[in-house]
Write the C-alpha cells for this entry.
Amino acid sequence: MKKKKLVRCVFLLLFLLLLTAGSTLFTRSNGSHSGSISKSGFYFNTIITVTLYDSSDEALLDGCFDLAAQYESYFSNTIEGSDISKINASGGAPVTVHEETAELLKKGLYYGELSGGKFDITIGRLSDLWDFSTKALLDETDASMIPSDEDIQSALKTVDYHAVVVDGTTVTLTDPDAKIDLGGIAKGYIADRMKDYLNENGATSGIINLGGNVLCLGTKADGSAYSIGLQRPFDENGSLIAAVHVTDETVVSSGVYERSFEVNGKLYHHILDTATGYPYDNGLLGVTIITDESVDGDGLSTTCFALGLKDGMALIESLSDTEAIFITDDYELHASSGIGSRIPCDVY
C-alpha cells in the first residue's frame, strides 16, 4: 500500500511542477478519438480534465476552466476572500454570497437532512485536524498524524449543519466556531455547471473528469456508451474491479483508498464519521453512484458510505434513476437493482 501511495504522490508532484511551468496542459488525443480535444489542470486539490469529441473549439475548454477558477474562488474554504471563507470568518454575522454559493449550500443542507447529519458541510474544524495531504503521504507515517481525542471531541461540538441558515443570498453561521467545508459536494456541482455551459454552446459529446467525479455528455462520437472503470481498491497497478457503461450520466466514487495513511497496521482515511470524529470503519472500501446530476452523485456517495451497505443500498433503491455499486472489505461487489440491466456492467 505504501508503494502505491508513493507512486501516486510522486506523479502528483510531477504534475504540479508541470503546471507551475506552464499553467494548464492542453493536448489533442489520437487514435480512436482522432479530432477530439482535451485540457487538464489542477483545481480543488486534484487533477481535472475536460475532453470533447464533437467539437474542435478550444475556447469551450477554456470556458470550462474559467468556470473552475470562478467556482473555486467562491467555494474554497482556504482561498482568502471566497464566499465560504467570508462566512467562516464572519463571527456569526450575516454574509452576502453569490447565488451559486447559496444554491450549493442549500444542496449541502439537503444531504445533511437526508443522511441524518452523516453528511455535514460544517465538518471543517474536524477535517482540518486530519492531514491527508501529499506531503503527509510522502512522509513516514507515525502516531503523531492522528489528532488527539481531546481535539477531535472539541471539533465535533462545532459540527452541526443546522447552524447554517440560508436566506436568499444571505448566509448566517449561527455557531461562530463552526467551519463550512464544501469539499464533499463542490466538484459535483461544478461538473454540472460545466456540462450546462458546454451543452448551451453546442457540445454534446465528451467527458468531464474532476477527480472521482466523471460526468459523460451524451454518447461517444459514434453513438455508443462510455465505459467508465472503477478502480480496484489499493491495487498497486491501478487495475479495475469493474466498469459501467453509461450515456449522459455521471459516475461518482468515494473510497477509503483515495486519501489515507496507515499507522501501526491500522488504516486512516478521509471519510470521517461525524458522530465519532474518526474515519468510518464499517466494512466498506468504496461506493460508486451512477445518476443524472454529479452534485447528487457527490452527496450520495458520501452519504451511502456513511450509512453502510444495508441502509445505503436501501436509500439508493428508494431513488429514481439512481444506481450504486458498493465494494466491501472482502472485495465483493454489491450492486443496486438497475446495475446489469439499466446500466450494463463488466466485472473483472
Notes: The two ends are 21 Å apart (CA to CA).
